[in-house]
TrEMBL record:
InterPro entries given in the database record: TMEM238
UniProtKB keywords: Membrane, Transmembrane, Transmembrane helix
Region (Disordered): 129-150
Native species: Lepisosteus oculatus (Spotted gar)
Pfam family, one: TMEM238
The protein, known as: Si:dkeyp-72e1.6
Positions of transmembrane segments: 40-61, 68-87
Amino acid sequence: MQVTGALCSPERPGESCLGRHTPAPAMEKGLPGLGRCSCAFWLAVAFDIFGLAVLLVGVFGDLFFYDFLIYAGAIIIFLSLIWWVFWYTGNIEVPPEELEDDVGLLKKERGLAGLVRRLSSRLSNGIRSSFRGRARPNGHGGGPRGTELQTPVVLPMAPAEGSLHT
């Protein structure tokens, strides 16, 4: 038995039972279960199959360059890890609430939490700016401090008298 209230009706699928609007689930393209990055998935599978085939031909084939095939197959299988990582990271879903700090959607916090955040931001910006190189008023800037006072050191190239190396 299904209980529906005034705000939880099948006529309004984009609305939850609490009255807040939630987006309707989008239909995924392609095969179900592969996620959004099916191209990376199929490339990873192709690299695995091709690498395994090359590796097995190198192991069981009676060829004079079997060692090349064994190494090439292992390298191809290793390179398939790149596509597996792309596929996995492309399917990670992060809710927008967790992205607020990362992408600049920071809410204006009130109270003690906002005060601590502003203080922390000012302190870190002050420390960061103290490490940056500033242009000097005399026009010399960009290089490390004290470069205009350094003089080159000249060493003689001729061996000194009485040295062991003559």
